[in-house]
Write a structure and sequence with these properties.
Elements (H helix, E strand, L loop, with lengths): L13 E3 L2 E3 L5 E3 L6 E2 L15 H12 L4 H13 L4 E7 L5 H12 L3 E8 L2 H10 L4 E4 L12 E7 L5 H7 E12 L5 H7 L16 E15 L2 H9 L3 H4 L2 H7 L5 E14 L1
Parallel strand pairs: 4-7, 5-6, 5-8, 6-7, 8-9
Antiparallel strand pairs: 1-2, 2-3, 9-11, 10-11
């Protein structure tokens, strides 16, 4: 099964009391919140990389209400479909662990021995994930420098996170799969209509990648109705439109009391050759 590896020397990390330690005695404490920080200072691009606390809390509150449950179920079913009795799962860019928890519960309900790890560059997000799923192992880390052993992962989840093909190919076993989750062209279309004079569709990302075979494409689509201002605000705060849309339009949207919006996703399943 997949072990965390030392971000300094790449040796396997083992848990001893409340720390992860490698054979070269590099030590990383497990925080009181249940996660480990495996992001070296020289790999940070800012003092607090990743999504900030405001976005993390908004997304956690919104997802926890089940608005994207159809996507969660799709990811769960695909992980089950492409895993054997013993399975190592890595949620790369796990955020607050909403999908991570769903996958673990689905696999264990199916009688599988699931070892699940999650990494995210946002410390605030990982803290929530570790609290949400105590059976998992979570680390603050970069997708571009995964602290995971070579050829040790069966299923990798990549949901709205950077596509790091070199690292995915390194950590996945031969025949392992990664799920690449992206917004469909009309995802959040009505939200964009409220914000922009000329809303734009999301580009399709179906591509072939060297070393991988695209074996399945699955759509998860639902139109959701939001009947309160709090959830509308949380949805908006968890999107990049917070930084990219006109302030005047934002002010109108954030006063709205109801909104019907597309929650449309595409999951591409790639198999390592």
């Amino acid at each position: 099964m997949a072990n965390f590896i030392c971000p300094v020397c790449s040796q396997p990390l083992n848990i001893k009391e409340k720390s992860y330690i490698c054979k070269n005695r590099h030590s990383f404490d497990i925080s009181a919140k249940g996660y480990v920080n495996l992001l070296p200072a020289n790999k940070k691009h800012s003092a607090a990389p990743g999504d900030d606390k405001l976005m993390v809390v908004a997304r956690n509150n919104f997802l926890s209400l089940g608005y994207y449950s159809h996507l969660k179920e799709t990811i769960e079913n695909l992980c089950d479909k492409y895993s054997d009795k013993n399975v190592s799962v890595l949620d790369c860019g796990c955020g607050e662990g909403y999908y991570t928890q769903g996958v673990y519960e689905k696999l264990t309900q199916q009688g599988k021995n699931a070892e699940i790890k999650g990494i995210d560059i946002s410390k605030d997000a990982v803290a929530i994930a570790a609290k949400r799923l105590k059976e998992g192992q979570f680390a603050v880390a970069s997708s571009f420098h995964l602290p995971i052993q070579n050829n040790s992962v069966n299923v990798l989840i990549n949901c709205f996170s950077p596509l790091c093909l070199k690292e995915f190919g390194r950590v996945l076993k031969k025949g392992g799969v990664f799920l690449y989750v992206v917004p469909a062209p009309k995802h959040l279309w009505q939200l964009k209509e409220a914000l922009y004079e000329k809303p734009y569709e999301n580009p399709l990302k179906e591509e072939q990648y060297e070393g991988f075979e695209l074996i399945e494409t699955v759509k998860a689509e639902r139109e959701i109705f939001i009947d309160n201002n709090t959830d509308i605000n949380n949805l908006f705060k968890m999107t990049p439109y917070v930084y990219r849309s006109p302030k005047e339009a934002q002010e109108v949207l954030l006063k709205a009391e109801n909104l019907t919006v597309n929650a449309h996703f595409i999951v591409y399943v790639y198999k390592k050759k």
